[in-house]
Structures
1.
Amino acid sequence: MQISVVGTGYVGLVAGVCFADVGHKVICVDKDSGKIEALKKGQIPIYEPGLQDILKSAEERIQFTTDLTSAVNQSDVVFIAVGTPETADGSADLGPTFAVLEQICKAAQAPKYIVLKSTVPVGTNTRAKAFVAEHGAHAHEIINNPEFLKEGAAIDDFLRPDRVVIGCESHEAKNIMEKIYAPFISEGRPLLFMSNTSAELTKYAANSFLSVKISFANELAALADKVGANIDEVRAGFTSDSRINKAFFYPGVGYGGSCFPKDVQALIHTAHEHGCTMNIVEAADQVNDKQKIVLYQKVKERFKDLNGMTFALWGLAFKPRTDDVREAPAGYLIEKLTQDGAKVVAYDPVASETAKEAFPSPFEIANDPIAACQGADALLIATEWNEFRNPDYKALTAALKNPVIFDGRNCLEVHDVQRAGIEYFCIGKQSLFQGPA
Ligand SMILES: NC(=O)c1ccc[n+]([C@@H]2O[C@H](COP(=O)([O-])OP(=O)(O)OC[C@H]3O[C@@H](n4cnc5c(N)ncnc54)[C@H](O)[C@@H]3O)[C@@H](O)[C@H]2O)c1
């Protein structure tokens, strides 16, 4: 099976490498020649654990090119995995997707199966079908195959998916997708065939529901703080109910990343276009907007005037095990603190460079977590990297001007912090810390 994947970002590259890993022949296409040149040399342009190793083991079956025409004509199936970012009105920007569709129509000398792997709003398949019918010289078939991988665990998610969702119409398309995904579902994982429209909506349903869970945890945590409850105890208590899945009920500084915020907006936008409401999802979005500045508010409440102060910040990526900083809560935090005249010295194991390029507000980068704290008025934690979980408290308190920590991810151990005599602010279990122990 010869496959092309257009777009070698977090999704396209992982998909291409994993397809090659299970034995398919893959051509990865990107318009970014710098990325393609790096990939040809075996260099991975993103941080994703395990990707480098799997690329090495699959290198005989994978090629990288900027030449879409040649890739399309060598392939039976062309996956499109370009970005679908949010536009000003909340809808998804389908410009890159349709630009690729147009290129495929121009390039293809025979009918192709074109698979929309990007997250695309409900109705895109209908538009795409009309588009290829108008612009293509051949009867291409549009298939929807939304991706559910999580950055930081992308390889495992792709190789061992909870399910694979495929929207298609013909038996031929179903057969070809079954062949492509057979190696990934051999352990009885479901390959779910449905209409293209259902496949599109399934992806938005999944991301929006996860966003609702996070916002619910955040609102519950705020209430726990007010009434003197401990959110960890509450979570353990209510998620033990077999009807409630334990995952994703962790409070923090809000969800970010390149998917949840934009997919929530896109679902709301689609609902409005069809005269429907998405009240629960809209509420999750509003709660998240407030949550992004919750740590800043705690800092402000504690120190009042932040002008001239210096804050250490651990974590810039939107979550651990990735260098992706799109919509990362750390970016909002830095913006608020610097607007108040404070300086931020940040440390992140892998995302410093991407954050430096992406965040609009200035901040300094430290080479290690303790160096970031040197002379700082307090430490803030925005990403729960494992290396932050058991800090050297002696070195930490020696470095900080004031032993104060604002932990936006509840990643420190209560007893350790208390023993170190640190003033600690966290999310949803504040009653345990009424000042230094
Ligand atoms: N990142 C995730 O965790 C994740 C998970 C599931 C689904 N998705 C969805 O997958 C899609 C891709 O997301 P991503 O994070 O991989 O995006 P990304 O921004 O990391 O990568 C997109 C790539 O497409 C390339 N590209 C854009 N236009 C092109 C063109 N005309 N020709 C060739 N290449 C082109 C870009 O250069 C870039 O390398 C989005 O719709 C996203 O919502 C993302």
2.
Amino acid sequence: MIDDDLRRRVAQHRWYHTMELAPGLVTHGWFDLRADVHRYGLPERMDGVRALDVGTWDGFWAFEMERRGAQVVALDLDYERELDWPPRRRPTAYSADPRGAGFALAHEILGSRVERVVRSIYDATPDDLGTFDWVLCGSVLIHLRDQLLALERIASLCRGTFVSAEEYHRGLGLLPLPVSRYQADRDRAVVFWQPSARTWRRMLWSAGFDRVERRARFDMHAGEGERTFTVRHQILHGIKAAAAPGAT
Ligand SMILES: C[S@@+](CC[C@H](N)C(=O)[O-])C[C@H]1O[C@@H](n2cnc3c(N)ncnc32)[C@H](O)[C@@H]1O
């Protein structure tokens, strides 16, 4: 039963993800990924599967994997100031709202059992989190200063399939070399390095994924009204040679 207070809190919150939390109760998020879910190559059912969502924000992917039957851990940080920033742009103060506020509200309404862990992917290790059959990391690496360290951590946490969904630089794909564009001084969303599609594949391999398969490329649409934009995305699956049978 969704009472008026919960509806009011949903309406007042500024959401990153559009999610249907109950019949007719939909968050108005900046990103509506629902039409693109089939591109990520998740199994229809994930019963008995342990899954990790890296950089969950409001939890769209964590709740989607839970809906398919997985036992899910979701990682994120709570304050923008703790994210990677070029020094000239780093916020000096902590914001009033923790990033996990929307996740907590959605978690309550969905009656979810996803465990949200406040931890940077840089500090996430199998010693305290264990390992996972599926690891999904969407639109996180593109914002990180050390993409390869994050990928190395993901590889150590993943005993099955890694689903990577990241923006890539289309123009650089014309070059026959694995290259990234340095973007730290632009004044939009923080991006230090924007790899070409080929470079992302090589980076997954460098981090320890022996088989890297491209599942999709598509334009992700975001925003609303006059402030809409598209982000070119590539979905890769990374699998280690020692991955359990059944990994795609
Ligand atoms: C652009 S959002 C993507 C949200 C979601 N993964 C998706 O695919 O829609 C990036 C998320 O990564 C988180 N993030 C950034 N740096 C991180 C880090 N070092 N460790 C864990 N999460 C991080 C941010 O707080 C934010 O929730």
3.
Amino acid sequence: MTKQAELQLVSIGAGQRSVDQAAPELLYLSRDDIARLGGGSSRLYTEALEEALALHAQGAFVQPLKPYLRSGGADGHIADRIIAMPAHIGGEAPVSGIKWIGSKHDNQQARGLERASGLIVLNDADSHYPIAVMEAGLISSMRTAAVTAVAVRYLAKPAFHTVACIGCGLIARAQLLSLLEQYPQVRELHLYDQQPGAAERLSDVIRERFADTVIVVARSAERAVREGEVVITCTVADKPYIPFEWLRRGAFVSNISIMDVHKEAYLQADKVVVDDWEQSNREKKVLNQLVLEGRFSRELLYAELGELVIGAKPGREKDDEIIILNPMGMAIEDIACARRIYAEALKEGIGTRLPLYG
Ligand SMILES: NC(=O)c1ccc[n+]([C@@H]2O[C@H](COP(=O)([O-])OP(=O)(O)OC[C@H]3O[C@@H](n4cnc5c(N)ncnc54)[C@H](O)[C@@H]3O)[C@@H](O)[C@H]2O)c1
């Protein structure tokens, strides 16, 4: 390990002064670097997520509300934006950072590119100097999958074996592969995408690794949702289309794409859980609309996810409860994952060191 890397590791571990002022450097990690460090599979992310959610429940974080940069104006497509997500997380190795994540709804069709792209910057907790820059798309999709994987442990029926997924893009792929890695009990997937061929393409990817899983390409969102003991939304929908009536008794909905579930379903569900109330109650998202209409409030919310992780509240209590999780996505989740990846990179000597000045 280089002297600089050692200094940075000391800082991350013990909060000591670390950045070499004569020649500050940072570590750049590409997507391939991150994958080589274990960032291509779910374990690193679920561990980091449990840690981040516990820190959230304990208040050991700073996380300003994220601004949405909409250069196309407020009337543009919901997925046409760049979001800045800064956070500081505590724990044994405090660190600050930001995810700067762009999204363009037509990237796939118009440019052959993934919808989302971005960078994560990590900053030394003492000097605030940047110490790492890394590709954000992989981390972002895998940490979002880890939110569902962790939440399932607390909120799904313990013996669940069917999963429905609406929207079959990159986020759906990470969600389903992570769930299959973490829960070998999953036997059946029901997939639906409004774009012809998308569900079939995702099925092929999943079959390469999980050949025994039964995969049904559904003819409608309703058909898929009605089958799901766990239901995951991964669309870019801007209007709800999942009414309460489609949900099975005992269903757990991980509403990753946020806008998919009808207002009435939130009001009829046994429990509504969010990751962070302040982050969730904004931007005219469905929950925020309900609050603005005076039909939902902090008091009606069952819990923030971290409260379940630290055991402050029980998760699912009965097999027939219908539970909706609305995870807006928190910067602390990205920074907690990036912190682990950075520490691994220093240990393994992976990445490209870049001078800040020279
Ligand atoms: N909550 C979080 O923390 C978090 C984090 C990352 C991404 N996301 C969200 O995940 C969603 C999916 O992202 P992605 O990168 O996979 O996008 P993507 O564009 O790659 O895939 C979206 C898929 O959904 C399909 N789709 C769109 N509207 C649909 C509808 N009404 N019914 C059925 N299918 C529909 C599209 O055809 C496409 O195949 C986005 O909304 C994104 O904002 C949430």
4.
Amino acid sequence: MQATTAIPRPPRNGSINAVQKEDTPIHGWYRFVLSYPPHLVRQYLSGFKVGPSDLVLDPFCGTGTTLVEAKKLGIPSVGCDAHPFAALASRVKTTWNLSADLLRTTLKNILRRASRVSSTHGLGELSFTALMLQEAPAPQPNGFQLTEEEEKLLPAGFLSQRPLQRLLILRDEIERQTAETPQAIHEFLLLALAHVIANGAGNFAFGPEIYRTKPKPDYDVLGHFARHADLMIGELAAAQARGLAATPAQVLCDDARELTEVPGNIAAVITSPPYPNEKDYTRTTRVESILLRLLTDKASLRGVKESLLRSNTRNVFVNDTDSGEVEEFPSIQSVCRAIERRRVELGKDSGFERLYHKVVSHYFGGMRRHLRALRPKLRPGAKLAYVVGDQLSFLMVPVATSKLLAEVAEAEGYRTIGCELWRERVGTKVRNSPTNEKTVRVREEVLLLEKAEP
Ligand SMILES: C[S@@+](CC[C@H](N)C(=O)[O-])C[C@H]1O[C@@H](n2cnc3c(N)ncnc32)[C@H](O)[C@@H]1O
């Protein structure tokens, strides 16, 4: 297994990671750009021979691809994510016993009131022409604004003023109209709001890293919300009509390094933990998390970061100790030393660059804690699939994630039963000399493990 290979041709390319058209219902309610596709989950559920009498776990469930796919197949599941927004997304996407009639009535009441309030505050309906021409009156202060603390959390330029005001009016109306309904109805509509933010109202996109786009002076927030919530309700009703609602799916907001509340007798794990790279998972969903009041100030952001596996320099803290778990692994220590050596050679001296090697050791230490907490929850012979990508994020030093993870897993009572290439991604260009540039491909693999019996 190699961390990188020189070009040419990849055996499989990016399209393998795309969601197939027939899989969009429910999966499409809200997805991370980096989520794996439903057909990957199907492949391993089938390969592991998991059926309706088994329990599947995704300990890093993100936006719930494993859980939704298991539920579609009538297989009970448990998911866990330490980020409250990911947990909310997964919870909504696996709660299929809501009344579609109540949702429709509530949606109409929200739209009616939000439309009236918006007009009163100078935010009337938007014509498509006005949007195309990017003509919008200058935003006026109207009381709909973030708190000072929330403002500080919002990445600069990620949301323009008028779309923000429209979103806040809509959020207030969701809160008002669902005050007396079950919490699940409230969260369902909040997830539709999150979709509007991430797929239209915000000035950001993913490529795959989150980046700022041209600012939108205005956006048809209510129109997008109405269409998306209506689609979600239709897909929910269709799943109910097919008798799929009863299969249990439990979602916990929990740290996978502890798994305190996860039940036992797990037959299979299909998951994709973070990779050791510079991706800050709290930034990918930052705007949605603020608007949904899941992140309210710096302390709450720090709390979430601390509960996440260390995988980037933005979530490493002075008192972190996970690295101590992998001191006896020469392979991991040698990668960390190589990163630190390269940093010194290149004269890279910033605070973040100095943390690169620590991220890697905390990452594998955290994964070791996760695997240790998981083992007693697994039934004998349980099978596990971990989708992980090799990395070059730290000064181009190769980190062979699946190979190193397999070593850690073996030390915690697992047997490696395979490692399959999922896809190759084009990595950064490496410049060997001013005239010689080389593109490298980075492997994303599925590490297959089995609970080993003593
Ligand atoms: C690669 S994403 C998973 C994507 C998922 N497969 C999907 O389909 O959306 C990794 C997830 O791990 C979560 N995570 C990171 N550290 C965690 C921890 N210590 N415990 C639980 N979840 C964690 C992140 O919040 C993120 O949602």
